[in-house]
Design brief:
Number of helices: 13
Structural class: alpha+beta
Distance between the termini: 32 Å
CATH architecture of the largest domain: 2-Layer Sandwich
Number of strands: 20
CATH superfamily of the largest domain: D-Amino Acid Oxidase, subunit A, domain 2
Oligomer: single chain
Shape: globular
Number of domains: 2
Radius of gyration: 21 Å
Largest sheet: 9 strands, mixed
CATH topology of the largest domain: D-Amino Acid Oxidase, Chain A, domain 2
CATH class of the largest domain: Alpha Beta
Helix content: 25-40%
Length: 379
Amino acid sequence: MTRRNETADVVVVGSGIVGLGAAYAAARRGLSVIVVDRTDGPTGATIRNFGHLCIGAQAGDARRYADVSRDLWLRLSRDAGFWLRESGTLVAARHDDELAVLEAALPAGGIRMLDTDELLRRAPLRREGLVGGALIETDLQTDPRAAADAIVRHLRSLGVQFRNRTAVTSLSAGRVETTRGTIVTGNTVVAVNHDLDQLLPEIAERRGIQRCALDMMRAAVTLRHPLTAPLLTGWSLVRYGRFAAGPEAAALRERLHTERPDLAALDLNQMYTQLPDGTLIIGDSHATATSPAPFQAEAAFSAFLAEAEALFDMPAPRVLERWQGVYAKGAEEFLIERGDEGALVLAATTGIGMTTGLGLAEENLTAAFGWTPAMEGTS
């Protein structure tokens, strides 16, 4: 059925985590909200991830948005009724240069070094080769597939309307044109992530936005005890802002790339999360292009499994699913811009959307639209 001339205080284009965060920010202030998405629901980076909210590994603006997001994730998990745990994040160190990177980050707080015995109590790893590790204390974990659906249901209960299977064709001041008619609005938020080039190509081209494709997998595993938190390795330390900038990380990166050029060629982030059903998410690789090829080389998955078997004390995993993740990638961590038509355009342009997206939306909608902060304790 075609709808004509609907009205809303806020129209959000895109139902990924940033778009849902924008809708949540508006709904908590009592505003009417319509979310428009060409799909049936979240299908992109918001569900194709580890469910790892890696707050304490961020720096600068990313850390500020992550801290705001943390509070919002905790509130949403309570009100929307989805699984989330204050797990922290484990880091397994297998070389002294990895310990050096962790120790260099200690003065900022929120990280506790672990000896090998404590790390093994928290993660079912092989003792051989371990030299210790750390716990990033602020981090959270959820199941992204369940969380996204639960957030949509909760937003509906707050009065947010969703127009799914509806494409936006153009934007103008106070109007959003869609394949089902016109929506008249006071404020428009565009949160379409890697599909920005399809709606606002000038902004995407000016900001150098491309797509980063990731290979990931989920496996059934037999572990001697559960993994108590998401687990990172040295390959992760050279990626995240809090760890990656110092000379210690430069030395670590040089060693890793020299010893394992095959893994460096995959642009590996060797990390793991265990879901409530006991299965393990394993990954991931990175390949950046305007339109990445959809074909997934088996070499990447073979490397993931080999590295997992070398790290964990377990029999060979049984692969249940493989998939390609995708997110927007740019020269900076975030895209925040007002388009010529007045829309607020938001994106996390690195792979930290789940960690920062709720805070990115909350802070920038408040500033752009002149809102007062939402009252604490409101849904």
